[in-house]
From TrEMBL:
Domain Metallo-beta-lactamase: residue ranges: 30-242
GO molecular function, one term: hydrolase activity
Gene3D superfamilies: Ribonuclease Z/Hydroxyacylglutathione hydrolase-like, Winged helix-like DNA-binding domain superfamily/Winged helix DNA-binding domain
Family annotation (SMART domains): Lactamase_B (SM00849)
Gene source species: Herbihabitans rhizosphaerae
InterPro entries: Metallo-B-lactamas, RibonucZ/Hydroxyglut_hydro, Sec-metab_biosynth-thioest, WH-like_DNA-bd_sf
Alphabetic keyword roster: Hydrolase
Listed name of the protein: Glyoxylase-like metal-dependent hydrolase (Beta-lactamase superfamily II)
Amino acid sequence: MADWTEPGVFEVAPGVHRIPLPLPNDGLRAVNVYAIADGDGVVLIDSGWALDEARDALESALGSIGYEFTDVRRFLVTHMHRDHYTMAVSLRRMFGTKVALGAGEQPSMEWVMRDRLDRMFADVRRWGALHLAEQLQAAHDPSSEETARRDYEDPDEWIIGRASIDLDHRELLALPTPGHTQGHLVFLDSAEGVMFTGDHVLPHITPSIGFEPVRAELPLGDYLDSLRLVRTYPDMRMLPAHGEIAPSVHSRVDELLAHHDDRLAATTAAVRAGTGTAFETARALPWTRRHRKFDELNLFNAMLAVGETSAHLDLLVARGELESSTVDGVKQYALAVFDSAERD
């Protein structure tokens, strides 16, 4: 099988091309941008990270199918993470291209240009991982935060709820799928039978849950509901933001739902065995498809792992299977205690 990260332009449906753009120093290695022919112009699903290498690759790829940056009519962005959104902002500054983003991203967008990391550090402390928060702060380069603020601006359009998007010769449906972020969208082209799934449904990995400056109350609950929502639509070919094209959205959704069922059971078992905080529970669980130990993760992925674990724990509390309390600013979890009448 060909490496999906290899540069180039790949037709995946009539008038739709996949363009993988590089993500230097990122474990995902590339992000798929999709170019949709729109009359004598083109609409892009996602944009890539605002890096010179990625911009040059995008310019070359568009040129190979007869377009220039001035032909890009619109960016439809699945969510606000920098590998999806920031190139759109950069190119808008040069060419005035319109940018659209899901309205659920508004709270995080307000924070990302201020003290995003301070808020994330506070989350990590609440999860019982004080030493991780201290390491993150020690490793933090303030200039990188200034760069992040410079890379972000509000979109031209906030897409609210389910919305029809009319292109020259086709119609897309923008469908809110919160979970990975609060404002994540997928885009459906029912006529061609394809779904641009962003980071919501990925072919080989599970997306991080709630990794954003303003976290939802139950990001995992939102994510599972969004998976079930996607499952109610006719099955389509999956055009993900990371990874190769897959023939069935439904089959991958079923796998993801089963994975999180298993993960919730493992999380409950860890608490039953004596873990109390999200950090302690994360350390008791295996990570990645290779079942790596928590202590083998780098600092960034350790933070993601603890945040993911907290999302599973909070959902178990909402379901009544666990109880939580806060002690000295740290959230503690325990098995729910039922009285005898409830058990009977």
